[in-house]
Amino acid sequence: MPVEWKFLSARKMIYTSSVVRNIWLSGPLKRFLSISSRALIDIAAKDDELRVFIVSGEVSGDTIGARLMASLKKISPLPVRFAGIGGFVMSQHGLKSLFLMEDIAVMGIWELLPHLNKIRVKLKQTIEAALLFKPHVVVTVDSKGFSFRLLKRLKARYSQQGLDCPAHFHYVAPSFWAWKGGEAKLKGLSCFVDHLFCILPFEGEICKSNGVGATFVGHPVLEDALELNFGKQLC
């Protein structure tokens, strides 16, 4: 199916879904509470809290991350403690960012080059902070360049130290499916990503067919539009 058709189909499916308003409570959070054969809450219960290390490096990711934080606090039977990187919106939900989100928000290869050394320093700082926090789960939101390097190196550090690695989730699946031969790159993600949260309906099946666990959780922008329209109808 051409990419353009996929987008049209995705938009129609999102708009007509009867569960889209509840997607933030139904999709991602069920995955948080039950991971493979282990129950995350059972593991966290030993510490009397659920520790979530969450990282976002973009404005759009700041909003998504904040929604996830708010929903997780509502549904978790344990107190939830957050650490990581985010912006203003995530700070409103209890995150004290390790440093300014803008420090890693660099787009494009030419824009990246002058900032490479600073990003390396920030990546190392983030890894050390995550290890010190001892999270039960690590969530990265979009910003795949920084996010995937972080998850990969965290996985390696836990392995080197002989420790159990926390569950790794990435929110907003990379659009490898839009590139020629790009789907093959998805297969490598399973080495350091336990589960992807997809915002387009067809992405989940593409990820699964390439060996990566994935769940369609709805598109935040379209959900906002639906909620706005729904609110107007009530007025």
From TrEMBL:
Entry's Gene Ontology molecular function annotations: lipid-A-disaccharide synthase activity; phospholipid binding
Top enzyme class, one word, equals transferase
**GO process terms (BP):** lipid A biosynthetic process
Span of the signal peptide? none
Task: State the Pfam families in the record.
Answer: LpxB
Catalytic activity annotated for this protein?
Answer: a lipid X + a UDP-2-N,3-O-bis[(3R)-3-hydroxyacyl]-alpha-D-glucosamine = a lipid A disaccharide + UDP + H(+)
By its UniProt entry, which InterPro entries does this protein fall under? Glyco_trans_19
SUPFAM superfamilies the UniProt entry points to? UDP-Glycosyltransferase/glycogen phosphorylase
What EC number(s) does the entry state?
A: 2.4.1.182
User: Keyword set for this entry?
Assistant: Glycosyltransferase, Lipid A biosynthesis, Lipid biosynthesis, Lipid metabolism, Transferase
Q: Name one GO cellular component term.
A: membrane
Q: What is this protein called?
A: lipid-A-disaccharide synthase
Which organism is the protein's source? Nepenthes gracilis (Slender pitcher plant)
